[in-house]
Write a structure and sequence with these properties.
With 532 residues, the protein is α/β, with parallel strands linked by helices. It has helices spanning 10-18, 76-85, 99-108, 126-131, 139-145, 147-155, 157-162, 191-197, 205-218, 263-277, 290-299, 309-321, 366-374, 379-387, 405-408, 416-423, 443-452, 469-495, 503-512, 515-530, and strands at 59-65, 87-92, 114-117, 175-176, 185-190, 249-252, 255-258, 304-308, 328-330, 356-359, 394-397, 400-403, 431-432. It comes from Paenibacillus typhae.
Length: 532
């Protein structure tokens, strides 16, 4: 079966699901299926003069993912990687990594050979992690042992700029999203309810209010809008984008701002508090988890949420399996007025810092670790990570990969993304993401990304800046307390325990706690980034 014209991000959703975060997923593409980052060129084995895969030496490396919980399952992709690279990987599991557990792990001196982490968030920044002897500086090692990463960075200077510090330090092998994989989430709504009620897809805050009120009064939805707190206005623009703001740091006309300080954020909170008072927002939203949101959406208790693209496929499949008529579809991020483009939605940098593979400074197998990670940046490794194993998940027809029925029409009814979860990496792995065009069951899933992309988010995106070690320590000290304050203030106002006008005092508290200094640090780091 030919590869359908589909958005590659479905695999990202599933990959995160495998890591134990139920339906916390993302990563999708847009209307064309061309990746901004082409498959690596040159020798498919990308061998240096004195090296070729598989590597000799009977070497086993330990590998840990910061978000991995439980005992990792051995998958066909793991066996194939071992066969091709000649390097065995022993994955380390356990409970998901907290800041405290990470600190204890560092203090123990027993880091795994390779560690996936968001090193941009390391106290003091990546340079400090190198300076303190936790991870290796990779600059010279890339020249020696990673010709494929080196070539990739030379071919993509915009990515090279992202993955090093201001000091020029390369500290990890990156996970780089394709251009089409940077948007993967947004509002999701019951299209069948809208049709039944004679309502169109809501595009503005006022239209959303009308729709949610109809869901409550005419469909008897107990929680017309259900969502988790991470979708309020930080992880995505959420409904805050209609007010021209979102949480956290972003850029306005070259100046770094902190959305929670802006007067429009107070107006957004006032609206959310009114919706909550009217019973339009799930009364349990402050404490529910992803599984509960899923249950409410598929049971008819709720008619709208904000989530990742994979949710649409999952919800429609669940309804079909239960023999129920339900049609879940994407809705655009709300705008302030009809015909306007919302300022914010959801958009990641090509390099967000997540799933970056650093090598322990204590490893006894530096070359093996470098070679294993570098394999993903070969043409052969890219094909494996994207399309899986030739003959099993795809065949070549006219030189182009075509999915087999094992993927496209799985005999056990397993969706294509879940099949590929076992036979490829596709996402959340140190590599350049390629568009995989997986077949999709529901047209609503395909349409979602084009709908969610329609924002001005790109002009506000703060790149992956790297404050200096001293700046990073100071920034962390300031923001730890401010982040806690903001979240508490947000919930108090939306839940109605405090009036929205009280938000002014929280803004002043943020100023008293040093937010202006934090902005100065971010601005300086941003300007240095632009000069790289």
């Amino acid at each position: 079966m030919l590869i359908n014209n589909w958005r590659e991000g479905r695999a990202r959703h599933s990959a995160v699901f495998l890591l134990g975060i139920v339906l916390l997923a993302g990563g999708c593409e847009g209307s064309n299926n061309e990746s901004a980052l082409k498959t690596p060129s040159g020798n498919p084995s990308a061998e240096s003069a004195d090296f070729s895969y598989p590597m000799a030496g009977d070497i086993t490396l330990t590998f840990m993912n910061e978000q991995l919980g439980g005992t990792p399952e051995r998958l066909p992709i793991d066996d194939e990687y071992e066969l091709r690279t000649g390097i065995r990987i022993r994955q380390l599991g356990g409970t998901p990594m907290t800041d405290q557990k990470f600190s204890l792990l560092l203090a123990s001196g027993e880091l795994p050979d390779i560690f996936l982490n968001t090193w941009l968030q390391f106290p003091g920044g990546p340079d400090k992690a190198v300076e303190q002897g936790y991870i290796l500086k990779l600059n010279g090692l890339i020249d020696q042992y990673a010709p494929n990463l080196k070539r990739t960075l030379a071919e993509h200077p915009e990515i090279d700029k992202m993955i090093k510090t201001d000091a020029g330090t390369y500290y990890a092998f990156p996970f780089i999203r394709s251009e089409n994989g940077r948007v993967y989430g947004g509002p999701i709504i019951r299209q069948d309810w809208l049709d039944e009620l004679g309502l169109g897809i809501p595009e503005t805050i006022d239209e959303w209010h009308t729709v949610l009120t109809a869901f409550k009064e005419q469909k008897l939805a107990a929680a017309p809008l259900t969502l988790r707190t991470l979708f309020l206005g930080e992880r995505t623009g959420g409904f805050a984008g209609a007010f021209g703001v979102m949480g956290n740091f972003y850029v306005n006309d070259g100046k770094v701002v902190y959305g929670y300080l802006e007067p429009e954020y107070k107006e957004y909170l006032k609206t959310m508090a009114q919706w909550y008072k009217e019973g339009l927002i799930d009364k349990d939203f402050a404490s529910i988890d992803a599984a509960t949101v899923d249950k409410k959406m598929t049971s008819g208790e709720s008619g709208a949420t904000i989530g990742w693209q994979f949710y649409i496929e999952s919800y429609n499949s669940a309804a079909q399996a239960a023999g129920e008529h339900a049609d879940f579809a994407a809705a655009p991020y709300p705008a302030a007025a009809k015909g306007e483009t919302p300022e914010f939605g959801q958009l990641d940098n090509a390099y967000a810092g997540t799933y970056s593979a650093a090598i322990s400074a204590n490893t006894k197998h530096v070359e093996a670790a470098m070679r294993w990670l570098d394999y993903a940046f070969t043409e052969e490794g890219s094909m494996l990570n994207t399309f899986g194993i030739e003959g099993t998940t795809y065949t070549l027809v006219g030189g182009e990969p075509v999915y087999t029925d094992f993927v496209a029409n799985n005999p056990d009814g397993i969706s294509s993304d879940k099949v590929m979860l076992k036979y490829s990496h596709s996402t959340n792995f140190p590599m350049i993401q390629q568009d995989n065009h997986l077949p999709v069951k529901y047209a609503q899933t395909t349409a979602a990304l084009d709908i969610w992309k329609n924002t001005n988010h790109e002009r506000h995106l703060l790149p992956p800046v790297t404050p200096t070690g001293e700046e990073s320590d100071e920034l962390g000290s300031i923001m730890n307390d401010i982040n806690t304050l903001v979240k508490e203030a947000e919930l108090r106002i939306i839940l109605g325990t405090e009036p929205a006008d009280n938000y002014d005092k929280y803004v002043q508290q943020m100023r008293d706690m040093g937010i202006e200094r934090a902005l100065d640090i971010q601005q300086a780091a941003y300007e240095r980034y632009l000069e790289r």
